[in-house]
């Protein structure tokens, strides 16, 4: 009897080992399959980063009322090129695209002008779209120090600003939409000549694009 009992116990142990082995093998197989699926997806889709570029920047009606109670008037005309270089990914800009003109040092920048609303749109694969944007500051109050810097720029004939782009997108592959991502573009510095002929010599400014 004792011998038989031991035999049963050993048999149970062997079964447990076999079950554990089977589970481990299944997990490894699942990891390999998931890796292959990811690799094939990557090879087929070949995701490339989207690119934003400010290709035109002009300012009109730029003037500053000096301190105290300094205010600024300015109308910015910007072209923002939005490039989707992907052959298999199209993009849906879900919310309106917000474009703002910032002025000042990093960290203490203020919004000088906010662009007109650009409504959401669908961007096909392998496509570049240029958004013309007008951003207006009308009697916008600014701190005295900023007004003095703006007057300095006005006298120097060049205004240096940053352009900020905020959008919400979904990536679409084969009709399936990804989760919602926030896109944050910063184009800096955008140097805008104030002379009437400056627009022709404007150098395009590429933007840093972060997706989160
Ligand atoms: C800015 O524009 C407003 C409205 O058009 C005008 O009343 C104001 O005088 C302008 N300010 C400057 C500094 O030109
Ligand atoms: C990009 O897509 C827009 C909107 O669908 C279209 O109007 C435009 O012609 C496309 N541009 C190119 C270069 O394919």
UniProtKB/TrEMBL annotation:
<feature type="domain" description="Late embryogenesis abundant protein LEA-2 subgroup">
    <location>
        <begin position="80"/>
        <end position="185"/>
    </location>
</feature>
<dbReference type="GO" id="GO:0005886">
    <property type="term" value="C:plasma membrane"/>
</dbReference>
<feature type="transmembrane region" description="Helical">
    <location>
        <begin position="20"/>
        <end position="45"/>
    </location>
</feature>
<keyword id="KW-1133">Transmembrane helix</keyword>
<dbReference type="InterPro" id="IPR044839">
    <property type="entry name" value="NDR1-like"/>
</dbReference>
<protein>
    <recommendedName>
        <fullName>Late embryogenesis abundant protein LEA-2 subgroup domain-containing protein</fullName>
    </recommendedName>
</protein>
<keyword id="KW-0812">Transmembrane</keyword>
<dbReference type="Pfam" id="PF03168">
    <property type="entry name" value="LEA_2"/>
</dbReference>
<dbReference type="GO" id="GO:0098542">
    <property type="term" value="P:defense response to other organism"/>
</dbReference>
<keyword id="KW-0472">Membrane</keyword>
<dbReference type="InterPro" id="IPR004864">
    <property type="entry name" value="LEA_2"/>
</dbReference>
């Amino acid at each position: 009897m004792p011998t038989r009992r031991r035999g049963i116990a050993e048999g149970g142990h062997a079964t447990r080992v076999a079950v554990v082995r089977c589970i481990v093998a299944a997990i490894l197989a699942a990891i390999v399959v998931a890796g292959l699926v990811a690799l094939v997806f990557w090879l087929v889709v070949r995701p490339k980063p989207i690119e934003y570029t400010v290709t035109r920047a002009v300012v009109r009606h730029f003037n500053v009322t000096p301190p105290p109670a300094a205010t600024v008037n300015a109308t910015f005309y910007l072209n923002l090129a939005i490039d989707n270089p992907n052959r298999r990914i199209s993009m849906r800009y879900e919310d309106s695209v917000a474009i703002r003109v910032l002025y000042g040092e990093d960290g203490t920048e203020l919004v000088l002008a906010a662009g007109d609303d650009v409504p959401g749109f669908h961007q096909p694969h392998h496509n570049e779209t240029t958004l013309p944007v007008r951003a207006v500051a009308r009697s916008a109050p600014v701190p005295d120090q900023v007004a003095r810097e703006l007057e300095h720029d006005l006298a120097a004939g060049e205004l240096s600003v940053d352009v900020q782009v905020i959008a919400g997108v979904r990536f679409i592959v084969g009709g399936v939409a990804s989760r919602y991502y926030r896109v944050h573009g910063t184009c800096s510095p955008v140097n805008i000549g104030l002379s009437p002929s400056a627009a022709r010599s404007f150098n395009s400014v590429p933007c840093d694009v972060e997706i989160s």
